[in-house]
Amino acid sequence: MQVSDTEWSTTEKQLAQAIFKRAYEREINALIEEVRAKASAIAELDDMWRLHDFLSARRHDIDGKYDYRYSVLIFVFARLVKEGWLSLDELNELNKDKLTKIAALARM
């Protein structure tokens, strides 16, 4: 069975959605704080364009990262663990097979 063929129970889908939302909110809140700091340091036009470029890159990254299709959710959770937006403990209610796959992928 491929990782992308993983089945999600109704309970796991509800849990995954809450976990996904929590990680997204954490990253967005951190981004907002970072943008506030960068914006308050704008002193000239080039600083503003650097902020624009930063935001464009972060939007691209975040839009690509937070993909809630069940076929890729194991990979999304692994990346979020690797980047520190989630901990494996937060995922421990998922079945053991999924948790093992996520942990292995997060170590790569």
Features:
108 residues, mainly alpha, 69% helix, elongated
Explain what the structure shows.
This protein has 108 residues and is mainly α. Helices cover 69% and strands 0% of the residues. The protein contains 4 helices and no strands. Helix 3 (73-83) crosses helix 4 (96-106). The longest helix has 31 residues, at 10-40.
Task: List strands and helices in order, with pairings.
Elements (H helix, E strand, L loop, with lengths): L9 H31 L4 H21 L7 H11 L12 H11 L2
Helix pairs in contact: 1-2, 3-4
**Assembly context of the chains:** single chain
Stretches where pLDDT falls below 50 for ≥5 residues?
A: none
Number of strands: 0
Helix content: 55-70%
Main sheet attributes: strand count, strand direction, barrel closure: none
SSE run? HHHH
| Terminus-to-terminus distance | 20 Å
Approximate shape: elongated
Number of helices: 4
Protein structure class: mainly alpha
Summarize the structure.
The chain is an all-alpha fold and 108 residues long. It is built from four helices and no strands.
